[in-house]
Amino acid sequence: MVSYDDLHQQNHQIAELAKTLSYLFQDREMCDTSVTCELFERYRDKFDMHMSNNKEIYSTLLNNNDGSVRSTVERFMEGEKEIKRLFKKYSDKWCKNGLRIGNHAEFVKETDEMFELVWSRIQAESEQLYPLARNHDEAA
Hints:
With 140 residues, the chain is mainly alpha-helical. It is 82% helix and 0% strand. The chain has four helices and no strands. It has helices at 4-25, 34-62, 67-94, 104-139. Helix 1 (4-25) packs antiparallel against helix 2, helix 2 (34-62) runs antiparallel to helix 3 and helix 2 (34-62) runs parallel beside helix 4. The two termini are 15 Å apart. The relative contact order is 0.15.
């Protein structure tokens, strides 16, 4: 299993990339650069990798006899499905073969919303899921 420190580091990297991209995307011309596209691909890859790393935590905690623990994990799993669905919809709209920006203001708005959604998820993992998993590990 990936360590909690590694998971927190992944969260930090995802947040750092989102902040950098959000800044770059404010300038319409920066949206079309290969460097910005590369950074965005890195963001997506890190997000995908991070979500797959959480599966180990889910499987461990779903075996817990405590119904509230299982309920929390199920909520995180459902939230992950929804984030992935929204991210796919966003990517299909804006990111086929590089970034495709027709309406810059709309792109920036939707991108900021996506980054905020991912950031809220990262915070929830750090404040709820990981402490729950640590307590489970300590009790085992």
